[in-house]
Write a structure and sequence with these properties.
Blueprint lengths: L6 H11 L1 H16 L3 H14 L2 H9 L3 H7 L8 H15 L11
Helix pairs in contact: 1-2, 1-3, 2-3, 2-6, 4-5
Amino acid sequence: MALTRDFKETVAARVQSDPAYAQALLDEAVTLFVNGEPDTAKLILRDLVNATVGFESLAEEIHKPAKSLHRMLSASGNPTMSNISAIFAAMKRALKVEIHTSVVTA
C-alpha cells in the first residue's frame, strides 16, 4: 500500500502554496456559519488556523487562551458570536483578504 500524506498536512501545504485556497477556506467557513452549519465551519476554520497563524499567535491577537480557542473550534465547541467574530477578523487580517460569502436564501 502506498503511503499517503495526512489530510491536515495536505491542507496546510495547499494553504501555504495557494493564497486563493486560503481565501476560499475562510469564505467557506463564514458562509457555513451564516447558513446554519457551524459544526463544519468550525472544523474548516480550525484547519485554516493550524495551516496559517497557529493557535498561539491567534490567541495573542484576540486576547484569549490558546486552549480555549482549541475548545471553541472543536467539534463540540460552542464559541460565542463575539469570539467567532474576533477569530474571523484576525484571520482576515492575517491572510490580508476580504471575506466573500454565498448566503443561501429560502
